Amino acid sequence: MSSGASKFFSGLIVGSAVGAAVGILFAPRSGKETRQVLKKSAQDLPKLAEDLGLSMQYQADRITEQAQRTIDEALVRLQEAIITGQEASRKLQEELAISMGSSVNKASIEIGDRPVEDEE
User: For the CA atoms of the chain, what is the radius of gyration?
Assistant: First the structure.
């Protein structure tokens, strides 16, 4: 999980705990009622932790799936680019071969057309 998401969830837990503690301590209740609320809150902590864990797991799975889709799409684009590059390379090689072939033919024709006197 990313550092930002980790910090967010840590802040969420700490903020919830501090908010609950302040709310309980400043609530207009008797000591007995406050203890009962604290006891109930303590009993709810495992459920809260489980819910938070499930939420984090869901987010991690979602991010993983999104990253996998992005990687797959990039791989497809890369393969298409490679194929396009290979096709362009083949065309250039063919054009070069044709160009070189016609240059060789022109040179042999010019040499063959020279007067015999130049060869001495």
Answer: 39
